[in-house]
Amino acid sequence: MRFRTTIMMMAGLLMLALLLASGALLAQDAPDAIVSQPTPTPELLPPDIDLMREVYTRLNNHRLRIGLHPYRWNAALSIAAQEQAEYLVGRRVRLHFRADGSSPSQRAIAAGFPPAGWCCGENFYRSTDVTPSFAVSWWLGSINHVGNMVNRTFTDVGVGMSSDGYTTAYVLVFGEMADPNQDG
């Protein structure tokens, strides 16, 4: 009886191994067009201005609590932030330097930001079910991100937000711009 059970177990394992091997062979024989198709770019939803405003407000409320001036909302930095948010969600990536080599500073300057000094810092958070409150709290808990949020040199910030209905990204781009009310 014991011998028969052992034989049946071995036969079952052999059958499983053959099934797995045939599946692997089928995958190897599949046409390259099927195996290597790129992931389609998701359709992006329009940015939610109220959520972006909430990120900006939470950022500046934190700055005021610790005795810093609020950041000015900057249109050019917002263009750079929005383009980066769309890039992150559309490409399903998490990175500051794109495949083309562009940096946050290069993208901000290309969007029309005239830096007065060092340009630029960038924070992003991309995930599912992320809220403005969560993103700002996460940045404040990260030594690498809070530095941009409490920077005494940066004067301006842009906010971007993108979602495909599943994943959402919030992006902040920080920069220093001369005060337009001062004589230079």
Describe the structure.
This protein has 184 residues and is an alpha+beta fold. The chain has seven helices and four strands; from the N terminus they run αααβααβααββ. It has helices at 2-29, 32-35, 49-65, 75-91, 104-110, 132-140, 143-149; strands spanning 72-73, 119-128, 156-163, 167-175. It has a four-stranded mixed β-sheet, with helices on both faces. α3 (49-65) packs parallel to α6. The longest helix is centred in the N-terminal third of the chain and has 28 residues, at 2-29. Mean pLDDT is 79; it is low at 3-36.
Which radius of gyration do the C-alpha atoms yield? 25 Å
Q: What order do the helices and strands follow?
A: HHHEHHEHHEE
- Strand proportion: 15-25%
Specify the overall morphology.
globular
SS content category: alpha+beta
- Counted beta strands: 4
Question: What's the main sheet like?
Answer: 4 strands, mixed
Which ranges are low-confidence, i.e. pLDDT below 50, for 5 or more consecutive residues?
3-36
Summarize the structure.
By secondary structure, the protein is an alpha+beta fold. It contains 7 helices and 4 strands. A 4-stranded mixed β-sheet has the order 1-3-4-2, with helices on both faces.
Please outline the helices and strands:
Elements: H1 2-29, H2 32-35, H3 49-65, E1 72-73, H4 75-91, H5 104-110, E2 119-128, H6 132-140, H7 143-149, E3 156-163, E4 167-175
Parallel strand pairs: 1-3
Antiparallel strand pairs: 2-4, 3-4
Helix pairs in contact: 3-6, 4-5
